[in-house]
Amino acid sequence: MVDDNSKAKIWAPRSVGETRALYADWADTYEDDITAMAYATLDRIAEALLTLAPDLTQPVLDFGCGTGLSGIALKKKGFSTIDGTEISPEMLVHAKEKAGPDGPLYRKLWLGTVGEIDVAPGDYGIIVATGVISLGAAPPDILPVLAQALAPGGLLAFSYNDPTLLDENYMSAFNGLLSDGTASQVFRENGPHLNEAVTGSDVIVLHRT
After folding, report:
1. pLDDT at position 11, please?
2. CA–CA gap between residue 209 and residue 132 (Å, rounded)
3. How far is the C-alpha of 131 from the C-alpha of 39, rounded, in Å?
4. CATH superfamily of the domain spanning 4-208
5. Residue 185: phi, psi to the nearest 5?
6. Which of 26, 90, 31 minimizes the C-alpha distance to 10?
C-alpha cells in the first residue's frame, strides 16, 4: 500500500524504474485508494467522448489502462470495443480480471513498451489516456506519439492535472501539436480530478487532422 507521504509525491518527476516500483507497490490497493479520493476524471473523459465520437462501436485504445477503471467508465457510456495497454504488469493483472455480463471488459490487453504505443498508425480512431500523461507518469513527449498514431479524423482524449498544467514541458508538447497542425482542440474543460484537497484537471480532446 502507498502511504500518504508517497501519494503526496505522485506528481513529481521520477525515473521509469521508480514509476514502475510505485505502481507495483500500489496495484493491490489502487482502486480502493483512488475511489476514496473521488477520482472524477474517468467519467469526465468518457462523457466528453460520448458527445464527440461518431460511432461507439469503433475500437478504443485505453492507453495506460491501469487496473481497468478507465475502461469501466467508457463501457458505462456505451463504448463496446475497448483494448488496453499498460506498462505495469501488476496493474495489468487487475485489468485482466475485469468482466461483465458480455465477457471481459477489454477485447485485447497487453504489456506496453515504455515510450511507445505498440500499435500501427491508424489502427484506432479513438485513444484515451486518463491521468496518464502527467508529472510522475508518462513524459510529455508521449502526447505527440499518441496523436500521430491516430487515424485521420480520430480523437485523442486525455487529462492534464493541475501540477502538470503548470509544467512548461507538458504544455509545450500540447501547444506544439496545435501549432504544427497535427491536431485541433475540440474540447477542454477544467474540473475535479481527485477531491479538491488533492488536485483538479483539464479534460482535453484533440481531433487528428
Report:
1. 55
2. 23
3. 10
4. Vaccinia Virus protein VP39 (3.40.50.150)
5. -85, 125
6. 26
